[in-house]
TrEMBL record:
Name this protein carries in UniProt: pyridoxal 5'-phosphate synthase
A molecular-function term among this protein's GO annotations: FMN binding
Residue ranges annotated for the Pyridoxamine 5'-phosphate oxidase N-terminal domain, each copy included: 45-163
EC number: 1.4.3.5
Amino acid sequence: MTFQPNDPGMSDLFTVRTLLPDPLPAEPFAMLNAWMSEARAEARQPNTNAMTLCTIDADGTPSARVVLCRGVDEGRGVLTFYTNRTSRKGRAMASNPRVALVFHWDHFDRQIRVEGRVVEASDATSDAYFESRSFAKRLGAWSSDQSAPIESRSELIGKIEKVCERFGVDPKNPPSEEASRGVIPRPPHWGGYHVFAQAVEIWAGEGGRIHDRAVWRRSLTPKQNADPMQAFDAGAWSATRLQP
Ligand SMILES: Cc1cc2nc3c(=O)[nH]c(=O)nc-3n(C[C@H](O)[C@H](O)[C@H](O)COP(=O)(O)O)c2cc1C
């Protein structure tokens, strides 16, 4: 909807367009999914599923890095990514499961911020995703103690050679992707994480002027359940429009 020029409060200086639905939808995940799909379809950036993940170390130090969103459960309001669990972010999430995520689609002038609680994905989920990765990536997961220091690049190459030896792979004559299936198991320190959203803020840029912005919040109550995707009872979303 576009406000008419004679709308009260309009001036020549500001454009006041309503970019998010008015009234706001009851929940934010349909819109999050739709924006991800639009970004993927337009493909104006290589990793349209890239999101900045913020964690808090045990001593309270915040840190941020990009990871790729590998799953959106619209019904549950959960986002999934994969990483090394002994990395800096993995250790941070083990000591403090509160995380924040940011998607930014620059060409669309859109941002989505998520705050929530993280739980480790099940072995079955992590195995299935690991198996879908390329051969080189599966080998790489065994070769890198992610975030740990290393003396030199050649020492890292030495580690990769050892991993090849361990799994009987000739790096000069690697198997095809098809033949390599089932050859390399998932390392025990590598797996998925599910972020249960507690707050989602959706932001649409209005030419650097009067942006449109809204936040949805809900409660999450931990519950005992062996399935990580059932780790919380979620309350209903409540939506609030914010000043830009
Ligand atoms: C576009 C992009 C995508 C990335 N995706 C992942 C990912 O899905 N998982 C991951 O562990 N690291 C990913 N990384 C690397 C991380 O940003 C980070 O460097 C690494 O995970 C180590 O972070 P940490 O030391 O804070 O644990 C990605 C980096 C970029 C630039």
